[in-house]
Specification:
This protein is α+β, with helices and mostly antiparallel strands. The protein is built from 17 helices and 34 strands. The longest helix is centred in the last third of the chain and has 19 residues. The chain binds guanosine-5'-triphosphate and magnesium ion. The site of magnesium ion has 6 residues, from α1.
Amino acid sequence: MRSYRTEQIRNVGLFSHGGAGKTSLTEAMLFASKAINRLGRVDEGNTVSDYDPDEVKRHISVNTSVAPCEWQDVKINLIDAPGYADFIGETKAAMRIADSALILIDATGGVEVGTDQVWNYAQQRNIPRFIFINKLDRENASFQAALEAAQAAFGSNVVPLQLPIGKESGFRGLVDLIHQKAYLYSNNRDGKFEEADIPADLAEEAATAREKLVERIVEGDDDLMMRYLDGDTNISAEELLATLGKAICNDSIFPVMCGSATLNIGVTQLMDLLAIGAPNPLQAQAEEGVKVDPNGPLSALVFKTAADPYVGKLTYFKVYSGTLHGDGTIHNSTKGSAERIGQVYNVRGKEQLPVSQIEAGDIGAVAKLQVTQTGDTIADADSGTRLKGIDFPSPLFRAAVKARSKADLEKMGTALGRLVEEDPTIKVEREAGTGETIMSGMGESHVQIAAEKLHRKFGVDVTIELPKVPYRETIMGSSKAEYKHKKQTGGHGQYGHVHIEVTHNEADDFEFTETVVGGNVPRNYIPAVEKGIREILSEGPLAGYPVTNVKVNLFDGSYHPVDSSEMAFKIAAQQAFKKGALEAKPALLEPIADLKVTVPDSFVGDVMGDLTSARRGRVLGMDQVGNGFTVIEAQAPLAEVQRYATDLRSMTQGRGIFSMDISHYEVCPNNIADQIISEHKKELEAAHSH
Ligand SMILES: Nc1nc2c(ncn2[C@@H]2O[C@H](COP(=O)(O)OP(=O)(O)OP(=O)(O)O)[C@@H](O)[C@H]2O)c(=O)[nH]1
Ligand SMILES: [Mg+2]
């Protein structure tokens, strides 16, 4: 590939609700620009951007891929992001580095919750948005319905530049409202089309749509506006396009294009528009403290880290200013350290194309960096520049990972570390309450794929299970308890004797006080009493779960001048605590999750009903946020929502999304607690008898 100057680059991210056709469209654009000579299909697993085995197997995108294609005199870096909510981390990374967003809408589904979500992300970043209404060849496809849905959701700046010709299986091309031409395609996917006059049956509709479009465009230029108002009919397509480009860059027009990615219809027209209308890096949304200039100081953001089967760890970055040269030393200003780098590459799907340098505005990759991670800034050593990182969402789906064998267990820790490095939306932690290793991610498939990666990339076999709920125990009342530990074994005896009071303690997990008078428990044994109780808190008297929110006061006891020991007082304290706790209204506590669920308005009833009747949930609020979506805020016990990522998806046909955080612990209702306690006791007994 030849080299391109900064102003010749377009970084265009493709975003949509899952499955709207981003990868197919990327493939079609690569084919149209002759970067590839065969048009692959997602369903056959042979596209440039869905190359990962996980993607080939599932026919969905799991990772963000970068695919540059050369069109006219520019290089369009297509950034093909996944659409499914499980892989939102990759989508957010793509959104972070895209200078404009190409948002696909499936003409059979219209604006979906995922469409709305990516639109909001793009809006937050304040980047220009293009809309491509795809799949017009499918049964039940409606350009008009999709367009109206987009206008209702995203406002009147959504303006069509084209109209489709033919419907469903009869879809054959489009009317270009700017050039006032029709382009008619054959259906053999070769992308060739014939220019023709606008079909008579569309003439009137096209004339109305053109008038609206031209009116919107001329608003952006006083001169053109005057001419338009004076009835000038000679405003040229070039003049309109130049002004349109400006309107797109300042978000006053969101142009709508249409086509079929798999039939390769409308693809070159889309690329023409991207070349003209998408901002180059000099025109793009400015980064704080950075001036885009290939000759300026270096600043680059690492947006992705992947374990490549051939080159090893591969670090993807976008250069914002300066020029990143290969074979030298770079400075990671996030970590505050330098490191060696080798060959730098442009990437196209799984291919790495060696280049000598990556200039401001372009995207590149480098292999085998040691300390650099996703979100880090690479900058000149003395500049101190730190670019804003990537705002990854917190995980929603927790699973327990278990090594299959001892050999797997030995490798598991390191492998999990590498996995997390590749995918910042995966979190790994040990749950102290249950002893399990928890891997959490954005959904069941995400975690499943992560487990498969452990096997494929790092040779570690694991199983994935629903985790045990980390219950806790507490006491709701208070009681006094006494225990005397006294034993005569051979010569030396054991003697420890305590009186304690246990009470519920709202403020703290554990508090220990003593009010012993007259030295009934000698000073030097009091720490042993506290230590004994602390130790036993990890296995509560009710069911063996950790105990929290208790206060213990040691108020009396007795000792023996010869037989007393720290050990004897420790045992006495533990036994007294067990007795006391069981008499102080012991209770099981369960974790409660905060949920924020976003669904199309029509699903609100079902989702609320399910939360309140099937999941012991409480709805705290409901907000119609417009665009046809409602946000429901609720709380529910974690035990009832461990599979919510999957359940919500099936309840809403994939149109609902949610976020979840553990909020606090609450007393578990008796009938449920009894069952949990008896099951947990059985488990503990089984474990102890092994
Ligand atoms: N009929 C028809 N099918 C299409 C079209 N575009 C994509 N598809 C099909 O829709 C499915 C999803 O296409 P993809 O290209 O994988 O969509 P995507 O947006 O990349 O999907 P994710 O990345 O997984 O969100 C595949 O089965 C495609 O063959 C189209 O224009 N017409
Ligand atoms: Mg895809």
